[in-house]
Write a structure and sequence with these properties.
Two copies of one chain form a homodimer. With 267 residues, chain A is α+β, with helices and mostly antiparallel strands. In chain A, 27% of the residues lie in helices and 36% in strands.
Chain lengths: 267, 267
Amino acid sequence: MDNTGAALLPEGAKARRVYLSLRDQITGGALPAGASLPGEQKLAESFSVSRVTVRRALDALASTGLIDRKAGSGTTVREGAVSGAPVAMNFTTLMPQLVEMGHTTQARLLSFTYEHAPSFVGNALGLSRDDTVQTAIRVRSADDTPFSYLTTYVPERIARNYSEDDLANHPLFSLLERSGVAIDQAHQSVSASLAGPEVAQALEVAVGTALLSLKRVVLDVDGNGVEYLSGLYRPDMFRLEMPLTRVGQGAARHWEPAIGKDGDSPT
Amino acid sequence: MDNTGAALLPEGAKARRVYLSLRDQITGGALPAGASLPGEQKLAESFSVSRVTVRRALDALASTGLIDRKAGSGTTVREGAVSGAPVAMNFTTLMPQLVEMGHTTQARLLSFTYEHAPSFVGNALGLSRDDTVQTAIRVRSADDTPFSYLTTYVPERIARNYSEDDLANHPLFSLLERSGVAIDQAHQSVSASLAGPEVAQALEVAVGTALLSLKRVVLDVDGNGVEYLSGLYRPDMFRLEMPLTRVGQGAARHWEPAIGKDGDSPT
């Protein structure tokens, strides 16, 4: 869906930038179903582009079914245009969760190599300069639509316990624990990033699309690094859900993650 | 810092897109300090642009201090170019946390109005069509650099208990609890979004920069919605940290958030 509109607009075209920005606001909920978009003149001023450019961006939004344009009543976000991200991350497994029944996910292995650890991986996992890591790039899809681009680094001594085939067919955590690794703690850091050319192609989005990015460092009980994950996620396909509960009394009152229900939302 | 390089490149220029993508990879850690960038020809092919365009993007990266260009040895990410996001979110307070000592944050109130709840807010908070909400837009800065653009919606009956001045100077949670609200649970959903013109100006970034986006719905003990937050965060200034611990035995082994240490990272 997302690629269709962008494909109508050449790379580097101003209309493409306006299209991506408005599409993001619609799929991100800032412009919800039924909301009116500002008029063409207002949009043109706001983006410092011509009205012709605004019209081309709106044409692309209309052709992808995100907006309705009616003479007289202006432009509105189409009801049902955004179905919400179908895949969420489950907090107790750190694996993608199928929120709506009937979804299936598939992983595709794009690359699988053994090489010296890049310095940022070596530093995070506590490896020495000569240590080798298995580097794998996988794209995960839900119902044939790609939603995540995952690069994982695992020290060779652990990674030799499972095969390329295993990795394409099993969650990495289960392969690590099957390999005798006593996983103890992880640290995740969440940010945002733009899709570069290779990632954009793999995730079937336009170059310059905003992606959710996640870095995860996993340590075993002895404090040795056993996995470094760099994940990029399509925001229209994937969301990170965090249900929280307010606990404690008085000055000690604080938030705690509400877990144990497969990450179900309390709302 | 981020604006400087983009300011050298006109809106809509292909070089700007290449610049933003590479800058994101550097500040996001995909291209860490010391890493070599691909050669100009490789970058040109990868982005489907000319080498002249690639050179303009690299000039902008060099002028903002993100890369070093040396004849013969190519282009590398500058050591110390990225200091890491200085502000992280504390899980027990859901407030920005000052990771490095000496940082101070300031909030600036951009707008403060009472109006009918937009439908996506009304639906999330369980309001009826005629209910009025206080809508406030605040920009929060650390050491005079803006890092978050926060839009909050609070039902009028609660919001009338505090003033515009209170909101500019106190965390909203403390104002809600001071107003007698028994906060019980929250649900946060994290995604990514592109900066549109207004947000870009407020956060002092280029239009089209990738931002971390967060939606939060807060409910009281009776299940009534008391706050809807839509937050946009600069990824170079803000990160969402999630320390996790692996607990349980056998098939019941799972992840739990590791909290209680002010969100300190275990790594």
